[in-house]
Amino acid sequence: MEKSLSERIAARAIKKKSPISHSDENQNRAVFLTLRVEIKEALDDGWPMTSIWQTLYEEGKVTFGYDSFRRYTRRLILLSPSHNPKHLEQLDTTKAAKPKPNETSQISGFTFNPSPKKEDLI
Predict the structure, then answer these.
(1) Is the overall model pTM greater than 0.85, yes or no?
(2) CA gap 47, 108 in Å, rounded
(3) How far is CA 110 from CA 51, 86, 94, 113, in A?
(4) Is residue 121's pLDDT more than 70?
């Protein structure tokens, strides 16, 4: 079976070092993307990011620093829509603010009436 386009792009970026200034960043991203499934599985198993990065670094699979690893993990795994929704609930602050459709709001307060009553005017 032929590799996916993402896998082919990652392999090309790892092999090729272009004269563009962001080539190291592209190469690091490509390496991370090839390991993404393994990293996601380790996170889902409960391993901390530091342990995952240290293991991959010692094995020589990643050569970039922990800060870059954290950034890639956050952007490409934790914030990705395909990731476990439990992680996204912690990051989504809008869920708590939205009332459920079948709940009636008991909040009382100011309501604007565009046509005022004569007795309310001074």
Answers:
(1) no
(2) 47
(3) 53, 37, 23, 10
(4) yes
